[in-house]
Amino acid sequence: MKKLVFGLLVLFILAACSGGAPASIDGQWALVSYGPADSQLSAAPDVDTSIDFASDGTLNGNVGCNGFGGDFTVEGDTITFGPIVSTMMFCEGPVGEQEAATLVVFQESASFVLDGDTLTVTSGDGSSVLVLARK
User: Fold this and answer.
1) What is the helix, strand, coil percentage profile of the chain, to 5?
2) Hey, where are the domains in the chain?
3) What phi and psi values does residue 65 have, to the nearest 5 degrees?
4) CA 20 to 30 Å from 68, out of 26, 80, 101, 118?
5) Where does 82-131 have alpha helices with state H?
6) 15 burial level (CB within 10 Å; 0-12, 13-18, 19+)
7) Under DSSP, is residue 23 helix (H, G, I), strand (E, B) or coil?
8) Three-class DSSP category at 60
9) What burial letters (b/e) apply to 41-65, b meaning 16+ CB within 10 Å?
10) Fold of 22-134
11) pLDDT tens digits for the chain (135 residues)?
């Protein structure tokens, strides 16, 4: 009888400690790298980047030049983006390239993998990847 009670107690503790809600992408992220999965480019140095996935389903950010924003929803490992709006300043060089690459991924839907404080977002067609670090 004592073994049965002990066994049930162990199962209860294990069940209570396992699972739970999956980690969320909500929060602020910094751009680490971008581009094709097999040839990532590092984010432009000395540029403060920020991408905020808010718990209310809004997205806003700046990866060096223009501010942008829009809506998103998460289902499983897919992020579906609404239209993204952006300011329209001309951006050239590495900052302009990383902004264009970021906004390409934020079109329609993308898959993602959250591994601790690293969020990897892959465009719907698989051609472009963003690697983000939690701020």
Assistant:
1) 20, 40, 40
2) 22-134
3) -135, -75
4) 118
5) 93-105
6) exposed
7) coil
8) strand
9) eebbeebebebebeeeeebbbbbbb
10) Lipocalin (2.40.128)
11) 444 334 433 333 333 344 444 589 999 999 999 999 999 999 999 999 999 999 999 999 999 999 999 999 999 999 999 999 999 999 999 999 999 999 999 999 999 999 999 999 999 999 999 999 999
